[in-house]
Amino acid sequence: MTPQQRIRLARRHAGLSQAALAGAIGVQRSAVSHWETNNGKHPSVTHMREVALACGVQFEWLATGRGKMSLSSDTALDSVAAADALLIEDPIELRLILAFRDAPTRARAPLVEVVEQLASLRTGRKIGSAR
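Structure tokens predicted for Helix-turn-helix transcriptional regulator (131 residues):
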């Protein structure tokens, strides 16, 4: 299997369109198309790493064809960005975080301000950006 075929297989396995993969790694859709074409360009090592992360496959398999395609459960956990990890044990806090992440970008700052005001009323201390 060629590197181009492995990139296409990884992308399809992840359920991503070329445009979605391109957006996830910060390149144009045409770049992904070139990477998947038989005589197309090869991605840089950095982009190959980003493709592996976005598609949830082993970098070594994607780059060389050696090893397994899928990530082991330990590797998958290690690949989760700290900002995206849900390391929250309190169910109420989890609801708050998920609601914030689901909110439109323009609504996030006002949501935080409302929560800070409510916390200030409850504790009697000013909470927020002026800490």
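The chain has a mean pLDDT of 83.
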